[in-house]
Amino acid sequence: MIYADNGGCAYGAADERIALCLDRAAQMGADTPDGRYDIADGVYVNVMTYEPRSADGATFERHREWADLQYILVGDEFMGVPDAAAAQIVEPYDQGRDIEILSAPLAMLPMRERCWALFLPGEGHAPSIARGSARVKKAVFKIKI
Q1: CA atoms of 90 and 73, how far apart (whole Å)
Q2: pTM to 2 decimals?
Q3: CB-based contacts of 139: which residues, under 8 Å, 6+ apart?
Q4: Per-residue pLDDT tens for 44-94?
Q5: DSSP label at residue 19
Q6: Residue 9 CB-density burial (10 A; 0-12 exposed, 13-18 middle, 19+ buried)
Q7: 2-144 CATH
Q8: Which residues are CB-contacts of 88 (< 8 A; sequence separation ≥ 6)?
Q9: Residue 10's Cα: distance from chain center in Å?
Q10: Where are the domains of the chain?
Protein backbone atom coordinates (compact mmCIF):
# COMPACT_ATOMS: atom_id res chain seq x y z
CA MET A 1 0.00 0.00 0.00
CA ILE A 2 1.11 3.55 -0.78
CA TYR A 3 -0.62 6.50 0.90
CA ALA A 4 -0.25 10.23 0.19
CA ASP A 5 -2.24 13.04 1.79
CA ASN A 6 -1.24 15.88 -0.53
CA GLY A 7 -1.67 14.56 -4.05
CA GLY A 8 1.74 12.87 -3.87
CA CYS A 9 2.68 13.41 -7.48
CA ALA A 10 6.27 12.27 -6.86
CA TYR A 11 4.97 8.70 -6.63
CA GLY A 12 3.92 8.92 -10.26
CA ALA A 13 7.55 8.37 -11.22
CA ALA A 14 7.23 4.77 -9.96
CA ASP A 15 4.88 3.80 -12.79
CA GLU A 16 3.55 5.73 -15.78
CA ARG A 17 0.04 4.39 -15.11
CA ILE A 18 0.10 5.82 -11.58
CA ALA A 19 1.25 9.15 -13.01
CA LEU A 20 -1.58 9.01 -15.56
CA CYS A 21 -4.15 8.37 -12.80
CA LEU A 22 -2.80 11.17 -10.58
CA ASP A 23 -2.78 13.61 -13.51
CA ARG A 24 -6.39 12.71 -14.34
CA ALA A 25 -7.43 12.99 -10.66
CA ALA A 26 -5.93 16.49 -10.47
CA GLN A 27 -8.37 17.54 -13.22
CA MET A 28 -11.43 16.17 -11.38
CA GLY A 29 -13.56 17.76 -8.70
CA ALA A 30 -17.05 18.17 -7.32
CA ASP A 31 -18.46 18.81 -10.80
CA THR A 32 -17.08 15.60 -12.35
CA PRO A 33 -20.08 13.42 -13.23
CA ASP A 34 -20.30 10.01 -11.59
CA GLY A 35 -19.59 7.09 -13.91
CA ARG A 36 -16.93 4.92 -15.47
CA TYR A 37 -14.28 6.46 -17.71
CA ASP A 38 -11.73 4.52 -19.75
CA ILE A 39 -8.31 6.16 -19.56
CA ALA A 40 -5.85 3.85 -21.31
CA ASP A 41 -5.38 0.18 -22.06
CA GLY A 42 -5.74 -1.55 -18.68
CA VAL A 43 -6.64 1.65 -16.82
CA TYR A 44 -10.08 3.07 -16.03
CA VAL A 45 -11.74 5.09 -13.27
CA ASN A 46 -15.07 4.86 -11.47
CA VAL A 47 -16.23 8.23 -10.12
CA MET A 48 -18.85 7.89 -7.40
CA THR A 49 -20.73 9.95 -4.82
CA TYR A 50 -22.05 8.16 -1.74
CA GLU A 51 -22.76 8.24 1.99
CA PRO A 52 -19.92 6.55 3.92
CA ARG A 53 -20.85 3.47 5.95
CA SER A 54 -20.45 2.73 9.63
CA ALA A 55 -17.30 0.94 10.78
CA ASP A 56 -19.46 -1.48 12.78
CA GLY A 57 -19.15 -4.88 11.13
CA ALA A 58 -17.25 -3.44 8.17
CA THR A 59 -15.76 -6.00 5.80
CA PHE A 60 -12.84 -5.51 3.47
CA GLU A 61 -12.09 -6.38 -0.12
CA ARG A 62 -9.07 -7.49 -2.05
CA HIS A 63 -8.42 -8.06 -5.71
CA ARG A 64 -6.16 -10.42 -7.66
CA GLU A 65 -5.84 -8.77 -11.07
CA TRP A 66 -6.39 -5.04 -10.56
CA ALA A 67 -4.77 -2.44 -8.31
CA ASP A 68 -7.01 0.23 -6.75
CA LEU A 69 -5.88 3.84 -6.53
CA GLN A 70 -8.56 5.45 -4.36
CA TYR A 71 -8.55 9.26 -4.58
CA ILE A 72 -10.84 11.49 -2.49
CA LEU A 73 -12.28 14.35 -4.56
CA VAL A 74 -14.73 15.83 -2.00
CA GLY A 75 -15.21 15.06 1.69
CA ASP A 76 -13.39 12.71 3.99
CA GLU A 77 -13.59 9.11 5.16
CA PHE A 78 -11.60 6.36 6.79
CA MET A 79 -9.98 3.64 4.75
CA GLY A 80 -9.81 0.46 6.81
CA VAL A 81 -6.58 -1.51 6.55
CA PRO A 82 -7.06 -5.09 7.78
CA ASP A 83 -5.00 -7.40 9.92
CA ALA A 84 -4.50 -9.91 7.10
CA ALA A 85 -3.41 -12.68 9.48
CA ALA A 86 -6.86 -12.60 11.13
CA ALA A 87 -8.86 -12.51 7.86
CA GLN A 88 -11.91 -14.71 7.41
CA ILE A 89 -13.66 -15.09 4.05
CA VAL A 90 -17.18 -13.63 3.93
CA GLU A 91 -17.72 -13.96 0.16
CA PRO A 92 -15.36 -16.14 -1.91
CA TYR A 93 -13.41 -14.71 -4.83
CA ASP A 94 -15.56 -13.71 -7.82
CA GLN A 95 -13.30 -13.79 -10.88
CA GLY A 96 -15.75 -11.85 -13.04
CA ARG A 97 -15.73 -8.91 -10.63
CA ASP A 98 -12.15 -9.54 -9.39
CA ILE A 99 -13.18 -9.22 -5.75
CA GLU A 100 -13.11 -11.24 -2.55
CA ILE A 101 -14.85 -9.99 0.63
CA LEU A 102 -13.29 -10.74 4.03
CA SER A 103 -13.60 -9.80 7.67
CA ALA A 104 -10.80 -8.87 10.11
CA PRO A 105 -9.92 -6.17 12.63
CA LEU A 106 -9.24 -2.88 10.83
CA ALA A 107 -6.82 -0.02 11.45
CA MET A 108 -8.34 3.25 10.24
CA LEU A 109 -6.41 5.40 7.78
CA PRO A 110 -7.81 8.98 7.60
CA MET A 111 -8.56 10.11 4.05
CA ARG A 112 -9.37 13.72 3.15
CA GLU A 113 -9.72 15.71 -0.06
CA ARG A 114 -6.83 15.13 -2.45
CA CYS A 115 -5.56 12.14 -0.41
CA TRP A 116 -5.07 8.85 -2.17
CA ALA A 117 -4.10 5.28 -1.38
CA LEU A 118 -2.84 2.62 -3.77
CA PHE A 119 -3.66 -1.02 -3.03
CA LEU A 120 -1.91 -3.65 -5.12
CA PRO A 121 -3.50 -7.04 -5.85
CA GLY A 122 -3.76 -9.06 -2.65
CA GLU A 123 -3.71 -6.00 -0.37
CA GLY A 124 -6.95 -5.73 1.57
CA HIS A 125 -8.81 -2.45 2.05
CA ALA A 126 -12.14 -1.36 3.51
CA PRO A 127 -13.15 1.83 1.69
CA SER A 128 -15.94 4.28 2.42
CA ILE A 129 -16.04 4.21 6.24
CA ALA A 130 -17.63 7.26 7.86
CA ARG A 131 -15.25 9.85 9.29
CA GLY A 132 -17.17 13.14 9.27
CA SER A 133 -18.57 13.97 5.84
CA ALA A 134 -22.17 13.07 5.14
CA ARG A 135 -21.29 12.57 1.45
CA VAL A 136 -18.05 11.73 -0.31
CA LYS A 137 -17.05 11.95 -3.95
CA LYS A 138 -14.23 9.60 -4.90
CA ALA A 139 -12.38 8.46 -8.00
CA VAL A 140 -11.36 4.79 -7.88
CA PHE A 141 -8.76 4.13 -10.53
CA LYS A 142 -8.36 0.51 -11.59
CA ILE A 143 -4.96 -0.52 -12.95
CA LYS A 144 -4.55 -3.98 -14.54
CA ILE A 145 -1.52 -5.75 -13.09
Answers
A1: 30
A2: 0.90
A3: 24, 25, 28, 32, 45, 46, 47, 70, 71, 73
A4: 999 999 999 999 988 999 999 999 999 999 999 999 999 988 999 999 999
A5: H
A6: middle
A7: 2.60.120.370
A8: 102, 103, 104
A9: 19
A10: 2-144
